[in-house]
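Entry 14. Structure prediction run on the chain below.
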Amino acid sequence: MIFYFSGCGNSRFIAESIAQATGDKLVFIPEADREQSFHYDVADDEHVGFVFPIYSWSPPQLVVRFVRKLRFAHKPAYVWLAVTCGDNVGVAEKVFDEQLVRAGVQLNAAYCFVMPNTYVNMAGMGTDKPEKAQHKIEKAKAHLPEVIQNIRDRKSVMEMRRGLFPRFKTKVIGKSFHKWVSDEPFRSTDACISCGKCVSVCPLQNITLEDGRPKWHGNCTNCDACFHHCPKNAIQYGKASVGKRQYYFGKD
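Output returned:
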């Protein structure tokens, strides 16, 4: 069983690739959360995996909240984590492991896949140039077979890209970031064609169309799926995202 979250497709690609190789069932965390599905029965010898992106050197808060409620009828024999990030992750897996203790389990292995940047909500931050983005994707694809084999063999591997000052980044910057997350700056420009793409791609179902324009309802994790999938680039996050490239996994 693999629990995953993804906004722009990087983590979904990793989760689906591993699930295809291992035969594991995929559980989309936002959907399970909406259905109040927190209790799972796994076989004594079954492994459980988690896949999600790293936001500001820490796990997305929606993932943290879900895991706090997660319970297993039987303790999984092996628990692994695979995260995606634009560069490095600080001590994000340690924060996540602390939450897993509430579910009566702990991490046996953790992996990191460097994937194209997606965050555009701050000045000076944006997506990678297409060549760099493709290079990251190819490296991630090349690394997948090794990770899949390690999962099959149930190896205890902690393969994290911590970067400089990892605890400070996660414990201080990351903690501040999640307090700051808001959908209030999101807006649509006159380029909007009322197609509803933003509504359909929002993993938290936080967007509706009102008078043909998107409206955000306060339940946002800043995954930026709405920005990146808009066919007219009509969604902006205040002035911070103006002029920045769009990206989602699979975009030509």
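Residues 130-153 form the longest helix (24 residues).
Filed with the rest of this week's runs.
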